[in-house]
């Protein structure tokens, strides 16, 4: 957990420092996209090499599906509530 927080803080500081570097920032979306793809690949690799996970994939898959759907629905509901509470007035002011 400490490693995650340290990486988040260092990334925030680095982003603050290079926020004026427009040339680098143009490519940041591509770098982020390919980094996420690499992480997904490595996650799939580690799942595929673990025999316990592969043996229990039918059980874990259903649980993962239920958790994923619940997380997506929960995020959508909370996002809708936050939009209605905080951003609806901004949209009305623009018209």
Please characterize this protein's 3D structure:
- With 95 residues, this protein is mainly α.
- The chain folds into 2 domains: 1-50; 56-95.
- It has 5 helices and no strands.
- The chain has helices at 2-17, 22-26, 28-49, 51-55, 57-94.
- The mean pLDDT is 87.
Shape: flat
User: How many domains would you count in the coordinates?
Assistant: 2
Mean pLDDT: 87
Strand content: under 5%
C-alpha Rg (nearest Å) = 20 Å
The total strand number stands at: 0
Structural class: mainly alpha
How would you sum up this structure in a few lines?
With 95 residues, the chain is mainly alpha-helical. 91% of the residues lie in helices and 0% in strands.
Please give the structural blueprint.
Elements: H1 2-17, H2 22-26, H3 28-49, H4 51-55, H5 57-94
Features:
mainly alpha, 95 residues
